[in-house]
UniProtKB/TrEMBL annotation, chain A:
Reaction(s) this enzyme catalyzes, per UniProt: a quinol + 2 Fe(III)-[cytochrome c](out) = a quinone + 2 Fe(II)-[cytochrome c](out) + 2 H(+)(out)
Further details from the record: The Rieske protein is a high potential 2Fe-2S protein.
Highest taxon of the lineage: Bacteria
Chain's gene name: petA
Protein name according to UniProt: Ubiquinol-cytochrome c reductase iron-sulfur subunit
Job of this protein: Component of the ubiquinol-cytochrome c reductase complex (complex III or cytochrome b-c1 complex), which is a respiratory chain that generates an electrochemical potential coupled to ATP synthesis.
Provenance organism: Bradyrhizobium ivorense
Protein topology in the membrane: Single-pass membrane protein
Gene3D superfamilies associated with the record: Rieske [2Fe-2S] iron-sulphur domain (2.102.10.10)
GO MF term (any one): oxidoreductase activity
Automatic annotation (TrEMBL), chain B:
Keyword Ligase: no
InterPro entries per the UniProt record, alphabetical: Cyt_b/b6_C, Cyt_b/b6_C_sf, Cyt_b/b6_N, Cyt_c-like_dom, Cyt_c-like_dom_sf, Cyt_c1, Cytb/b6-like_sf, Cytochrome_b_C_euk/bac
Subcellular localization: Membrane
GO cellular component: membrane
The protein, known as: Cytochrome b
Positions that bind heme c: 474, 477-478, 619
Biological processes annotated in GO: respiratory electron transport chain
Length: 138, 690
């Protein structure tokens, strides 16, 4: 009952062009049936994400571990709440990040859990920068 | 109790079979001669009611499966086509969907009855545990069945519930992948759920056989909680219990029919009339009402693993009940303290159900935590403690004594049972209604609709005018893809002739093909064609409308709702108010205001609408006075347009409503007469037993 060959093949890596995403905006792409948020973070968001004290986080992780070095402005996370799998809404909640409408979990501008029942940060999918304006997810 | 039967058929053919397979003897000893306590009350008829519900669910389910397509792209549509095109498909679907609720309603009463009268105590522990297994199987079956229509709540319910298993340490993620058959809930998930949903009812039927077998070994418990000792304590199953069960079943069918024929969507969620969309989570994900108490327990615990563990624990704990409650007296009738705590426990369960339907914030979370503690305290503290400290009142010597003692005051029983049934049903079931999303929109004013109430019919003139408004205004952006031109000539519709419907169709250009050259071509519409959608796909619709795709209107009158709140949803149950959708649609069409009130900011490209949740709607004001001219002299005003087009859209969403209400009347007349006959027959049969 595990995924069949066709399903696995359809889950191959995808490339995403980042040029159309303006600062402060984000897009949602689908990979393996999961929504992936790609956010072009503002200076304020980056600063907020970096300045928070790690000890105050339920799932401590520095912002630098969640973005690629040299590409601080790009946050790529799987948009699936780590509680029970709903899709959080971007640009909502008290932390300039994501808010899950199902059970009220709130994530910050680095996709880290700050408040609510979710146990972990939003997952970062495997991805690499092919060029400065293009990433490959998977 | 059901030892070898001495039953001997007289018919030679039956005799021949009986010697080789003593099946008639088995039936005779189990359902005819089987001694049943003579003091059973109507709470004991729920066993028979549940057997009937299981049979009905399997029967309607098998027929529905003949018309259903278990594929993510077609499932939603195939369910809609069952309702619209299959002969009595609307009846089958309503029976099956409401039947699930009724099944759970009956099983909860059955379980509470067991709890109150101590039916789980020695020697009926295995009987009780088999019941808990049936209940677990029912929950799994019900959940997977709810996924099959593949609406928004189906999809997101499936996502949330399957994700529960990800809380299990180490194996969680691989179990979830196994359930999904992919990387997320999708087509493989739907396929396997369909397969399991077809399988599990037969597993339930198998466990029910064991349940009944165990019952017939231990014998039935009874309100006095003392075992049968002599002949005088019992009556034969047939005719006494049979006829009593028939009366109970027919009363239950009346209750059930109220939903099937008059409020088929009362127990459902409007969001499930929106096709599943993996990219959008509904504002409130609410399970069906029968899972709400457990959902409330899940949400009240801030830790994921602990929450899931408590939720399952709340069910599993039932299996240990025989050992948690050591009291020797079975029936709570003779246990003054246990009786009070039982009723407190019932209130706690209903309270949890209500909280499960509310958004998880503020006071609701705190109340949920308190009630969760109460729920577990009942099993883990109250029952073990009571069995040590409580002094029970003396129990009667025998069942016969019990019957003699209370032969007066018996008349009110049936009436009070029915009343309790209806009130509890309305309260408990209706709590789901309160969960409808209504963020920041005013409640739409209630309108007068020709189709409301038990005798409501569509106003033909209004339908025809509404069709004109749809065609000239709405159709520019909104599809109506589940409605075919032929439907315009269907009975209970706008009342056109088949020729008129064909003529109407021929005004449309329909894309067909490929032809012999392999090219697509356009041809005039035929009666069998469906209303063409204005955009080829959702992306095109989105791009042409500033990012917001205009929804298809086929089901809009059922896919929109608003919060009714307590106590209105209880009143709605009795008044058969089902028009939240039309009220909302009508209000939206009339709710546009040029002047934005102070304190509300409307983004660029949006418009202010008083009744739209959040007030910022992407649709510009669609209707203005004088825009459409009517031939029948009706006023050319926005109010009239909105009323007519809403009536039309209600018909588009529920084309067989008139047939449903008509058949409902006939079924009600039949059931009431039948129940009356059963009641008087039962009185006659039992005349010597009391």
């Amino acid at each position: 009952m595990n995924p069949d060959a066709a399903t696995i093949a359809a889950g191959a890596p995808i490339e995403v062009d980042l040029t159309p995403i303006a600062e402060g905006q984000d897009i949602k792409v689908f990979w393996r049936g999961k929504p992936i948020y790609i956010s072009h973070r503002t200076k304020k968001q980056i600063q907020e994400a970096q300045s928070v004290a790690l000890s105050s986080l339920p799932d401590p992780q520095p912002d630098s571990a969640r973005v690629k070095a040299g590409h601080d402005q790009w946050l790529v996370v799987i948009g699936i709440c780590t509680h029970l799998g709903c899709i959080p809404i971007a640009h909502e909640g008290n932390y300039d990040g994501f808010f899950c409408p199902c059970h009220g979990s709130q994530y910050d501008s680095s996709g880290r859990i700050r408040q609510g029942p979710a146990p972990a940060n939003l997952a970062v999918p495997p991805y690499t920068f092919v060029s400065d304006t293009k990433i490959q997810i998977g | 109790m059901s030892g070898p039967s001495d039953f001997q058929p007289t018919n030679p053919a039956l005799k021949w079979i009986e010697r080789r397979l003593p099946i008639f003897g088995l039936i005779h000893s189990s359902f005819v001669a089987y001694p049943t306590p003579r003091n059973l009350n109507y709470w004991w008829t729920f066993g028979a009611i549940l057997s009937m519900m299981l049979a009905l669910q399997i029967l309607t389910g098998v027929i529905l499966a003949m018309h259903y397509t278990p594929h993510a792209d077609f499932a939603f549509k195939s369910v809609e086509l069952i309702v619209r095109d299959v002969n009595y498909g609307w009846l089958l679907r309503n029976m099956h969907a409401c039947g699930a609720s009724m099944f759970f309603f009956a099983v909860y009463i059955h379980m509470f009855r067991g709890l109150y009268y101590g039916s789980y105590k020695e020697p009926r522990e295995v009987l009780w545990i088999l019941g808990v297994i049936i209940y677990l199987l029912m929950m799994a079956t019900g959940f997977m069945g709810y996924v099959l229509p593949w609406g928004q709540m189906s999809f997101w319910g499936a996502t949330v519930i399957t994700n529960l298993f990800s809380a299990i340490p180490y194996f969680g993620e691989s179990i979830v992948t196994l359930l999904w058959g992919g990387y997320a809930v999708g087509n493989p998930t739907l396929n396997r759920f369909f397969s399991l949903h077809y399988l599990l009812p037969f597993v339930i039927a198998g466990v029910v056989v064991l349940h009944v077998w165990a019952l017939h070994v231990a014998g039935q418990n009874n309100p006095a909680g003392v075992e049968m000792k002599t002949e005088k304590d019992s009556v034969p199953f047939t005719p006494h219990a049979t006829i009593k069960d028939m009366f109970g079943v027919s009363c239950f069918l009346i209750f059930y029919s109220w939903f099937i024929f008059y409020m088929p969507n009362y127990l459902g969620d409007a969001d499930n009339y929106i096709p599943a969309n993996p990219g959008v989570t509904p504002a409130h994900i609410v399970p069906e009402w029968y899972y709400l108490p457990f959902y409330a327990i899940l949400r009240s615990i801030p830790n994921k693993l602990a929450g899931v563990a408590c939720m399952f624990g709340a069910i599993i704990i039932l299996a240990f009940l025989p050992w948690l409650d050591n009291a020797r007296t079975r029936s709570s009738k003779y246990r003054p303290l246990a009786k009070q705590f039982f009723w407190i426990f019932v209130v706690v369960c209903i309270g949890l159900g209500y909280l499960g339907s509310q958004p998880p914030e503020g006071i609701y979370v705190i109340a949920g935590r308190i009630l969760t503690v109460c729920y577990f305290a009942y099993f883990l503290i109250v029952l073990p403690l009571l069995s040590r400290i409580e002094t029970p009142r003396p129990v009667p010597n025998s069942i016969a004594d019990d019957v003699l003692a209370k032969s007066k005051g018996k008349v009110a029983t049936a009436a009070s049972v029915m009343l309790a049934l209806v009130v509890a049903g309305g309260l408990f079931a209706g709590s789901t209604q309160t969960a409808k999303a209504e963020e920041g929109g005013d409640a739409p004013p209630a309108q007068k609709w020709s189709f409301s109430g038990p005798f409501g019919t569509y106003d033909r003139g209004s339908l025809q005018r509404g069709l004109k408004v749809y065609k000239e205004v709405c159709a520019a952006c909104h599809g109506l893809s589940y409605v075919a031109f032929r439907n315009l000539a269907d009975p209970g519709g706008p009342g056109y002739s088949p020729a008129q419907a064909s003529a109407f169709a021929s005004e449309y250009k329909i894309k067909d093909g490929p032809n012999d050259q392999g090219e697509m071509f356009e041809r005039p519409g035929r009666a069998a064609d469906y209303f063409p959608s204005p955009f080829p796909n959702e992306q095109a619709a989105r791009a042409a409308n500033g990012g917001a795709a205009p929804p298809d209107l086929s089901l809009i009158a059922k896919a929109r709702s608003y919060k009714r709140g307590f106590p209105r949803f209880v009143i709605d149950f009795f008044s058969q108010y089902q028009e939240q959708g039309p009220d909302y649609v009508d209000a939206i069409l009339q709710g546009f205001e040029d002047k934005v009130p102070a304190g509300v900011t409307i983004p660029e490209g949006s418009y202010y609408n008083k009744y739209f949740p959040g007030h910022a709607i992407k649709m510009p004001k669609p209707l203005s006075d004088g825009q459409v001219t009517f031939d029948d002299g009706s006023p050319a005003t926005v109010a009239q347009y909105a009323h007519d087009v809403t009536t039309f859209l209600m018909w588009a969403a529920e084309p067989h409503m008139e047939a449903r209400k008509r058949l409902g009347m006939q079924v009600f007349a039949f059931l009431i007469i039948f129940a009356g006959l059963m009641y008087f027959t039962k009185k006659k049969v039992w005349a010597d037993a009391h």
